[in-house]
Amino acid sequence: MRRYIYSGLFVAILILLYFVRTKEFERSAFYMDTLWEVKIVSHVYPKRAFNRVFTVIAHIDSIANVFGDGELAKINSGHRMKVSSELKEMLEVGIKMGKLSGGAFDITIYPLMKCWHFFRDRYVPTDSEILAALQRVDYRKIEFRHDTLVLPEGYGIDLGGLAKGYAVESAIKVLKDMGVRRALVNGGGEIGVIGSWKIGIRHPRQQDEIIDTFTLVDAYVATSGDYERYFVKDGKYYHHILDPRTGLPAMELVSVTVVDTSGVWADAIATAVFVLGKDKGKKLLQQLGITRYWIYTREEFQTSEAPK
């Protein structure tokens, strides 16, 4: 008799939960030099899911950060060391994208980023300084000896063009493994979703204005734009997305948004297309089978002025 009472109670609880309306819960935190927002739709506050998501994001941040004493920082300081599986995966994507883009995407761009002081202050390097840095930018010099990464002296790696996308994808995988049915992870414009979400594309010159919207379902979207990190010096505008072939900011486009089934690949592809420009970028997208994308040129937004 007791078994039937318990069974009836269990069924009653299930029925009650079915009719309880789900709510959208949100938490945010700062990692990878950007604000991360995580939204989870659930019947109850998903504390454990939030904690696990931010733990994995913090872990990827510690690996890919060029500062501190993490893996990448040690490698850039000249250490030869066995790399983690996560770092190796990111490096392999970077190398592949370097080949696919003809060098427009290059994860050995670290010496060039240092040359521009984008990690610290507003500095425009001389032509000779840029040329010297370019001599140490070439993804083809990366070697793996078993699981040990080997770089020539003076070389370094910057994963800014794909690390956030990798972290977004890692966070989404954690949520899926926990059985979450609807969620969104946004790391500074690199977004992954479980379920269906309406996504807006930011106007590259008006921060609070949306220029287009679309529905994203169980996929990832990444945006590369010239408005996130930039400075103006002597009346001239400079942004942080550098062309590793010239050492200068890529200036044809203002924004590229790409939808893909992989977060890390969406991030890398958007960056590569931004550097390549409209025509060559479209050819790369076609080659990769990407059909959902938005490309905006400087002429479309009269971008002689810096973003507001």
Helix % is 25-40%
CATH superfamily: ApbE-like domains
Tell me the number of structural domains: 1
Could you report the average pLDDT, rounded to the nearest whole number? 90
Write up what this structure looks like.
The chain has helices at residues 2-19, 47-64, 71-76, 85-100, 110-116, 127-134, 163-177, 263-276, 278-288; strands at residues 23-31, 34-42, 81-82, 143-145, 148-150, 183-187, 190-194, 196-202, 210-217, 220-225, 230-233, 236-239, 253-260, 293-297. The protein is α+β, with helices and mostly antiparallel strands. The protein has a 7-stranded antiparallel β-sheet with strand order 1-2-6-7-10-13-14, covered by helices on one side. The protein has a 3-stranded antiparallel β-sheet with strand order 3-5-4. It has a two-stranded antiparallel ribbon with strand order 8-9. α8 (263-276) runs antiparallel to α9 (278-288). The longest helix has 18 residues, at 2-19. The relative contact order is 0.13. Mean pLDDT is 90; it is low at 1-5.
Give the gist of this structure.
The protein is of the alpha+beta class.
